Amino acid sequence: MTGPVEFTSFVRQHSTVLLRAAYLLTGDRIEAEELVQDTLVRLYPNWARVAAAEVPLAYVRRSLTNNFLNGRRRRSADDLLFAEPPERGYEPDFGGRLSDRELVRRLLNDLPARQRAVLVLRFFEDLEDTEIASIIGCRRGTVRSIISRGLQQLRAETERQATSQPRQTNGNRR
Questions:
Q1: In 3D, which of 23, 67, 20 has the Cα closest to residue 41?
Q2: What is residue 83's DSSP assignment?
Q3: pLDDT in tens, 8-39
Q4: Separation between Cα atoms, residue 174 and residue 161, nearest integer Å
Q5: C-alpha 59: how far from chain center
Q6: What is the 3-state secondary structure (H, E, C) of 102-144?
Q7: CB pairs under 8 A, 24+ apart, for 112-117?
Q8: CA 71 centroid distance within chain
Q9: pTM higher than 0.70
Q10: Residue 16 vs residues 11, 39, 123, 140, 161: alpha-carbon distances, Å
């Protein structure tokens, strides 16, 4: 039987990964934190079942993704308290990384939720197509199709943005 100690250990070990995935899904730090918290609050009463899963992180990741896709983010009146709160799962953005991250965030936010979820699971969580199909509840071929359409849409939008921005020229050239 697992209890609060095992749950707390899991949260400490995996909160950064879960928060990153949630941020990429929601596009907002606060919504991501709420999504992770809501998912963990829902899973806690049945934590023995989660811990008994072959890969508990995959179980929680699937629940997180389903919560996002279903849009059932209800607020809970009960806060789950820890003796020591887990460290923040994000780091501040600096310089050049900021513009790249913002571009990726904007591009992901423009995608439909299911496409966004599949691309996040594939390229940011590094899951195989069969794992994604299991999480999303579809066939492997559907995952490949969603990835292809999503990447095509991202490429088109990136090209559109690149051609719509005026080229900067060096002021010293004549």
A1: 67
A2: S
A3: 999 999 999 999 999 999 888 999 999 999 99
A4: 27
A5: 14
A6: HHHHHHHHCCCHHHHHHHHHHHHCCCCHHHHHHHHCCCHHHHH
A7: 113/25, 113/68, 113/69, 113/71, 114/69, 114/146, 115/146, 115/149, 115/150, 115/153, 116/24, 116/25, 116/150, 117/25, 117/65, 117/68, 117/69
A8: 14
A9: no
A10: 9, 14, 16, 27, 31
In terms of residues, how long is the chain? 174
Phi/psi-derived region of residue 3, left when phi > 0, alpha when psi is between -120 and 50, beta in every other case? beta
Q: How confident is the model over 55-84, as pLDDT tens digits? A: 999 999 999 999 998 874 344 444 455 556
What is the band of 124 on the pLDDT scale with cuts at 50, 70, 90?
Answer: confident
Joined together, the tokens standing for residue 14 give: 């995996």
How is 6-71 classified by DSSP, letter by letter?
Answer: HHHHHHHHHHHHHHHHHHHHHS-HHHHHHHHHHHHHHHGGGHHHHHHSSSHHHHHHHHHHHHHHHT
Q: Do 115 and 146 meet the contact criterion of CB atoms below 8 Å apart?
A: yes
